[in-house]
UniProtKB/TrEMBL annotation:
Family according to the record: Belongs to the EamA transporter family.
Residue stretches spanning the membrane: 6-25, 32-55, 61-79, 86-110, 116-133, 145-167, 179-202, 214-233, 239-262, 269-286
Biological source species: Pseudonocardia lutea
The UniProt record lists the keyword Transcription: no
Domain of life of the organism encoding this protein: Bacteria
Domain EamA: 2-133, 201-285
Record's protein name: EamA family transporter
N-terminal signal peptide: none
UniProt keyword terms in alphabetical order: Membrane, Transmembrane, Transmembrane helix
Amino acid sequence: MGAALALVSALSYGLSDVVGGIVARRMRAARVAFLGQLGGLLAVAAAAPLLTPAAPAGRDLLWGGASGLGTGLAMAFLFRGMGRGAMSVVVPVSAVGGVALPVLVGATVLGERPAWPTWVGVGLALPALWLVSRGPADPSRDTGATHGSVADGLVSGVGIAIQYLALARAAPGSGLWPVLAGRVTALVAVGVLACTLMRALSAEGERRAGSREAAAAGGAGVLAAVALTAYLVAAQSEFVTVAVVLSSLYPLVPAVVGVAVLGERLSRGQVLGLAVATAAAVLIAVS
């Protein structure tokens, strides 16, 4: 059950990325990020009292808030890295870093010992994420921008790891309250960082964006909140290592949607990455 929920988390995150990416073509990335966090906050705020009527413990709210700070950190540096232009560098570095750090913490700090097929799946998932996330290189970008994007990707990966690890520490009976606390802190973090790190991304004018684009950005945030909720339940019934790796397979969704719906073409490396990631998911899910 936990593995299935982690895959639901990956699907929801991937769809969120698809919707957010389409909206970002007509709206500034900082605004998309802010409206997304706002949409997720409103959805979880409406659902939490209904699905989890019991009052939350302060400890669970703190862990949820910490996860939201990780979200804000990850998004800010991810957007800044992409703003520097080396998207083919910052996205895979961020994705792999966000998986590798929780796996390392799970094995060394939390003492998790999954079965050997799970470790084989984890070992396959890391290069698969890199291959799927990595787009074609942009020769117009200079070395300095690429080096800067590597640093941004590493910091973004740390933020993703904080998000996953902190949320997994919430008690099983906490329900949606940790997710709600995380959406509050993430909204504040994105709002603050949008005025600093993301400012460069707002320098260029955006195309005309109306209420439909704003609603779509909010919808992307709702999907992300669903993803976090599914991950939270998965992490409470599975090893954190398993929940994180399966949830982090979300880059597969934009790749598949791009081919099936948008008519995009995948590189040979991305096709190989999809095949390896599928094998990794099967190994982890059945072990």
